[in-house]
Design a protein that fits this description.
Helix content: under 10%
Number of domains: 6
Distance between the termini: 136 Å
CATH topology of the largest domain: Protein Transport Mog1p, Chain A
Shape: elongated
CATH architecture of the largest domain: 3-Layer(aba) Sandwich
Oligomer: single chain
Structural class: mainly beta
């Protein structure tokens, strides 16, 4: 009701009327009056310039935006198509032909309207006449025709094609056409010989490259037609033939005179006058100039100004009607008939044509008969006086005199009352084959009226429905689908199911009684227990069978089998005591290393016989030198210190006592026995030193060891 409700606060609503400001009235470039269009809110309105294109004569065009030009092509052309398609298979086309072979002047022959699945053709039967034929999808049809959202009917001298949903109106009478489309639906979205509907004339004749040339533009919109091999888009455009100056036609002067003066303030006559002069000079004997007056009068009538002009042409542009009709310059767009007592919504406008004489009316649009009374046609054509019949569900009788027919409401036979009880049932009135005026009431089922809705079943179940006997609404239940369900997914029987990579699982045909779902059967993947030397199988996250993890160092000596060492373990080469292998663990990584013991220079010839021995490392030799000044002395060597699996980083200077001491056995007469004297080379003075050791774990410790400073021969038991 054109009020606006605004929520303020505290559940308070403010209601106020929608105020519509009178919109400014624009000037339409085509010279016609703008039309009021209701806004989307249904309350206010605004002005729009409708898309209105006309064509007439040999031929002349007035684009949607009012640009006038002439074009003499003899092919089939696009008048209107959408730039961006919003309607399926929509377009309006014109088929021209050379009506004067010598001068190359063209005339319209067929107007074509396409909409979705239908193609309407209004074809001129005879040149320069209003005699036309209508076909739909190449089949002749009787008017009025209405199907699939498209209607074709007669309106005065015109044949009209209407598409109500699009508010499109197309007229054609053999000499001229007009196209009216709403700007709100087609604005800025048309192209063709009628131009772009945007209230701007400057781009109506614009080519894709930006040039302005109406004849080249018009030729650009050719339609490929196999029946016209001479027509092909891209050929040189058809130029309008030059017209030699000729005497001004008296018929054309009517456009500028008093006859059409009431319309001059609404539609300027200049372009129509120029077209009239062109036609009268190009085809002087064809009376084709009448088409300029006729299209101008049609445009004036569209603006609400009706002109009775044919009576001023001295019979040159006269229009003859059938004997049972009379000519009117200002008749209704749709006549009143016995079948429709009201005119259509556009009846405020007027058209010229042949209409039933005053005091009579058209019986029906499909029956071209004028009658004084609606019953007269029946009683004089099909019925005898006194005969009873049913007409429009009335019981009638033909009488002589008066209205010729008396009718009363048709009585229907009594029917048993039917009650459509039960959810989903509703009453339907069906056509009675025995009496079309008395429908039969039956009960029909419409499941959309049922309140019960299909439930949403859990995974593994599906909706099953059935309709009990005598009812309309279905009953729903969730039934098992006989599948397995795992992690929000369904699996068919015998199909594999991924549970984890440590198991092989598949969906069985067995059903779990409690869940009603099929059972998933699994078996573990078999695992290998073998690991390479130095490796042990341990549990690893994400692995089914664990993994072989290295726990010991594997050393590959050149001349022997592999050695397996624990972290912190040292071992000599089996065939070379001077080569030592070790294993350490640093940052969870096992690292093996090989060390070579370097021995000091050794000369056996400088040794006392019998004193050559191996050092404790089993690699280097030592002896008592021949020229040793001191029987017992300190001897130095360099070697690694190893303690509890830890080892010094570098070789350490170690000292030891080495040499000979006096040892003898003598007989003692006093004791009457052997006296023994034994001394050994031992340390006499020592100090404690400290060294840093590296362990297999990567840690470091400090270790104390004894350093011999001096040695001497000391007594010992023999």
């Amino acid at each position: 009701n054109c009020t606006k409700a605004t929520c303020i606060e505290n559940n308070t609503i403010k209601i106020e009327p929608v105020i519509c400001e009178p919109p400014p009235k624009p000037t339409c470039s085509n010279g016609l009056s703008p039309v009021p269009v209701t806004d989307e809110n249904g309350c206010c309105w605004h002005w729009e310039c409708d898309c209105y294109c006309t064509g007439w004569g040999d031929p002349h065009y007035n684009t949607f935006d009012g640009l006038y030009y002439s074009y003499q092509g003899n092919c089939t052309y696009i008048l209107v198509e959408e730039i961006n398609e919003t309607v399926d298979n929509f377009g309006i086309y014109i088929d021209n032909y050379h009506c004067e072979a010598e001068d190359g002047v063209s005339c319209p022959r067929t107007l074509i309207v396409r909409h979705e699945t239908q193609e309407v053709r209004i074809a001129t039967v005879e040149m320069n006449t209003f005699h036309v034929e209508v076909t739909v999808n190449k089949q002749a049809v009787a008017l009025p025709y209405k199907k699939f959202g498209l209607s074709v009917y007669e309106s005065g001298i015109n044949r009209v094609v209407e598409i109500p949903e699009l508010k499109v109106n197309v007229t054609y009478n053999g000499l001229s056409f007009s196209i009216r489309m709403p700007y709100s639906r087609f604005g800025n979205n048309t192209h063709g010989q009628c131009g772009i509907c945007n209230n701007n004339q400057t781009d109506d004749c614009m080519l894709p490259n930006g040039d302005i040339d109406c004849e080249t533009m018009a030729d650009h919109w050719q339609v490929v037609d196999p029946s016209k091999p001479q027509c092909s888009p891209g050929l040189s455009p058809t130029k309008t033939p030059p017209v030699m100056p000729c005497k001004e036609s008296a018929i054309c002067k009517l456009l500028l005179g008093s006859v059409f003066e009431p319309c001059h303030g609404f539609v300027r006559p200049d372009k129509y006058y120029a077209a009239c002069i062109f036609d009268s000079c190009a085809l002087p004997e064809s009376d084709l100039e009448c088409s300029s007056l006729q299209i101008y009068a049609t445009t004036c009538a569209d603006q609400g100004v009706c002109i009775d002009w044919r009576s001023h042409t001295n019979g040159v542009c006269s229009y003859k009607c059938p004997i049972n009709k009379e000519y009117r310059a200002c008749g209704p767009i749709r006549e009143i008939t016995c079948k429709s007592s009201e005119q259509n919504a556009t009846s405020a406008q007027q058209v010229e044509g042949c209409f039933c004489p005053k005091g009579t009316m058209l019986y029906d649009y499909g029956v071209d008969v004028c009658v004084k009374t609606c019953g007269e046609f029946y009683c004089s054509t099909w019925m005898h006086f006194g005969e009873k019949f049913t007409l429009d569900c009335q019981d009638c009788i033909c009488l002589e005199g008066g209205n010729g027919i008396v009718c009363q409401q048709h009585e229907c036979a009594k029917q048993n009352k039917i009650r459509c009880d039960g959810e989903g049932f509703y009453e339907v009135r069906e056509v009675n084959s025995e009496d079309s005026c008395c429908p039969i009431v039956t009960c029909k089922c419409n499941t959309s009226l049922c309140s019960a809705k299909a439930p949403k079943c859990t995974l593994g179940f599906e909706v099953h429905s059935y309709i009990p006997s005598g009812q309309c609404c279905p009953v729903y239940e969730c039934v098992p689908k006989r599948v397995c369900v795992h992690q929000n997914a369904e699996f068919l029987p015998d199909s594999p199911v991924f549970v984890d990579k440590c198991q092989n699982c598949f969906c069985t045909n067995e059903v779990n009684v409690s869940t009603q779902l099929n059972i998933i059967s699994c078996e573990h993947i078999p695992c290998s227990t073998y690991c390479e030397p130095g490796y042990e199988r341990q549990q690893v996250k994400g692995e089914c069978c664990g993994a072989c993890v290295q726990t010991k160092c594997v050393v590959h000596p050149a001349n022997s089998s592999d050695l397996i060492l624990k972290p912190g373990e040292f071992r000599n080469d089996p065939y070379n005591n001077c080569t030592v292998y070790s294993c350490v663990k640093i940052h969870n990584q096992l690292i093996s290393s090989t060390s070579e013991i370097t021995c000091p220079a050794f000369n056996e010839e400088s040794c006392k016989p019998g004193t050559i021995t191996l050092l404790p490392n089993g690699c280097c030799k030592t002896c008592v030198p021949l020229d040793s000044p001191t029987p017992c002395s300190v001897r130095q060597r360099q070697d690694f210190i190893t303690y509890k699996g830890c080892r010094s980083v570098d070789r350490v200077v170690l000292t030891e006592c080495e040499g000979t001491c006096g040892t003898f056995s003598l007989y003692s007469a006093e004791a009457n026995s052997m006296e023994h004297s034994c001394t050994c080379c031992r340390e006499s003075r020592t100090t404690v030193r400290e060294v840093e050791l590296k362990c297999a774990t990567g840690e470091s410790i400090f270790h104390k060891y004894v350093y011999v400073q001096s040695c001497s021969c000391q007594d010992t038991e023999c």
